[in-house]
Amino acid sequence: MSHALKIYTSPDHGKEPLFLHTPDEVRAWFARWREASPAGSVDLATFYLAGDDWGPELNAGLDGDKGVLHHSGDDDTSYGFHSRNPQGSNPDEVVYYFFAADTPFPPHSEIPVTDVESAVLEFMSTGLRPTRVHWQAWVPGVGHVPV
Questions:
Q1: What's the burial of 130, exposed, middle or buried (CB within 10 Å: 0-12/13-18/19+)?
Q2: Which Pfam families match (predicted)?
């Protein structure tokens, strides 16, 4: 069963979020986002299941051909999970921006942008933390935590 997604990507979405109802709408939105976010942009978007403001949350970041994910929901630690690139990627913590807010991500959290998009599509389909990517439990200022 596919869920509509409610997305926040800019300050005006606080009053009127963007809604995507089909996988094709998500793919088209990602294509526009990729065009508008060249390498160095480090932009974040927050996805919720439409109609479930207190349900799971998926944050997706984009920086050219790579990006990051953070999921928080019923199945995780109180800090949520961050994407993990098993081949290694960013050796140090990286910062992405939700509006103007700094949002740190752990080492090795940057994954190919195609994996970010696939994870959002899986979240739309299941409403759960995507299984197509690897995850790590990490707390800013503390480091990795046991799951």
A1: buried
A2: Imm1 (PF14430)
Task: Round the CA-based radius of gyration of the chain to a whole number and report it.
Answer: 14
Going through the chain in order, the beta strands assigned E by DSSP cover 5-8, 18-20, 43-49, 57-63, 66-72, 81-84, 94-98, 101-105, 111-112, 134-136, 138-139, 143-144
What pLDDT score was predicted for residue 78?
A: 67
**Which has the closest alpha carbon to 40: 92, 104, 96, 82?**
96
Angle at 123 between CA 10 and CA 48, to 5 degrees: 40
User: What's the pLDDT at 71?
Assistant: 94
Integer Cα distance of 103 and 120 in angstroms: 19
Instruction: Give the pLDDT band of residue 1 (cuts 50, 70, 90).
Output: low
Instruction: Return phi, psi of residue 113, to 5°.
Output: -60, -30
Percent of the chain, pLDDT > 70? 90
Other C-beta atoms within 10 Å of 106: how many?
Answer: 22
Q: Is the dihedral of CA 133, 138, 144, 147 positive or negative?
A: negative
